[in-house]
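FAQ: What does a ligand-bound record look like?

Like this one, built around flavin-adenine dinucleotide:
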Amino acid sequence: MATSRAPDACRVLVVGAGLTGSLCACLLRRTFRDKVDLVVWDKARGTGGRMSTYRPPDPSYQPVDLGAQYVTATREYARAHHSFYSELLAAGVLRPLDCAVEGLRAKEGAVDYVAPLGMGAVVKHFLKQSGARVFLEHHLSGVYRRGASWEVRRKEGGDGQSFDALLLTIPVPQILQLQGDLKDVLSDRQKQLLQGVSYSSRFALALFFAPGTDLGVPWAVRYFNNYNEDDGGGGEPRIVCYAAVEPRKRAAEEEAGRGPALVVHTGAPFGLRHLESDAEAVRPVVLRELRRLLPDLPEPVAVKCHKWRYSQVASAADGCPGHMVLSDRPPLVLAGDAFTHSNFDGCVASALSALAALGNLV
Ligand SMILES: Cc1cc2nc3c(=O)[nH]c(=O)nc-3n(C[C@H](O)[C@H](O)[C@H](O)COP(=O)(O)OP(=O)(O)OC[C@H]3O[C@@H](n4cnc5c(N)ncnc54)[C@H](O)[C@@H]3O)c2cc1C
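The answer part, i.e. the structure of the complex:
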């Protein structure tokens, strides 16, 4: 979407091209139209953050969701965020999950949705709607107050850039690492709240198989019990807690020339125990456990292992309404799942509340 800009448009920088950042950019555009000049930065090479879809360099391998897997709308959120769900369903970005899920008791009244093109398409949809200029491999390293604006600097170097308003949607530990004037604008109470935010950590593996391989499992999505059954349920937490077959999860046909893939998530206790381990060192441990759980699984042709240091929010910023205002003039607002909870609706709730906080921006 090409967007014209009023000459005196308010220059807004959204940092983080994950779901919260993309929703914030979209809502800012819909509210302020050409009165805002929107720029989005992300340090990664692609958009999506924890809701990105990994596209392997070899095109014969299946694209996979390594982070968020599907969207569950509880009855309450389906009502409260109806417009977001209708928009994504109408655009074909989401569709109802229509496959076997084993090992998880469904929440009463909740509906699950999958993204036929991968979860990254959800984020891309809102970014496109925002008409923002998106800059990848732009790693925010410092924030400096310069009168009525903010100067931001990048880890990659170059001159600082000036914006009228800043919206940070990056994980809280990464906010606390920023150089510059943030420490001066944070009140003691805010610092305490941010320091109290914690995340679970986990590893995600994608096993890629040759075209036409039968994985020999009847399910598309399977949760494994949290504890090994062999020891009566009281022993070591399981290493593997989740597996999904792609593209079966998305109810999509395997494309000619592309084999299936199996996505595996480790449990949070295992992630925590191996937090400082290299993903490559952890890979054989998880594969060994997977082989024990699924002894008939064929040999993959390739395996990707990714560490999510900040996976899901374990302890959110207590008592925040979905965002945190660090400065009114010039505006500096924090948003993201750390201020609500880790899922689609948590990000929508945070983006809506951040928008309300920025209501008198222009
Ligand atoms: C393994 C896993 C499974 C999950 N499963 C589900 C699920 O099934 N359903 C569901 O609804 N949710 C799920 N979630 C949670 C969901 O993915 C998150 O709640 C959501 O994606 C968070 O979005 P966000 O925009 O707030 O943060 P993020 O997605 O983390 O986005 C932040 C962005 O900021 C960027 N960034 C960080 N630091 C900087 C910097 N200094 N400068 C520039 N950019 C920076 C990052 O690269 C990232 O793109 C899962 C998450 C994980 C990890």
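Follow-up question: can I read anything off the structure? Yes, for example: The two ends are 22 Å apart (CA to CA).
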